[in-house]
UniProtKB/TrEMBL annotation:
Gene source species: Rodentolepis nana (Dwarf tapeworm)
InterPro entries (alphabetical): rRNA_Ade_diMease-like_C (IPR023165)
Gene3D superfamilies named in the record: Ribosomal RNA adenine dimethylase-like, domain 2
Protein's recorded name: Uncharacterized protein
Amino acid sequence: MESLFPPDRPDLVIQLFKEAAVQPMKRPIQLSNLEFRDLCEVYERICAANENVFSYEFRTPQNLPEWHARRKTQREILKEPITAENVRKQMYK
């Protein structure tokens, strides 16, 4: 899910899971239709509230250097990288 957001916005990954109330440990094939719907609806709200999130594409040449450095960026912003376990901890803070 982190590939949906710019590397300098790891907070949005946490927000997505928190607002959708979906366990980040789940694999995509484990999601129910309702959980998938909730993730989509929250993503839509996040995109509406944050310019350039919907148009962000991590695979474009200009974004790849930032994408490859995302763990460092996450540590600078959150003090830890984005992992399913760390997102889960943030959800229940």
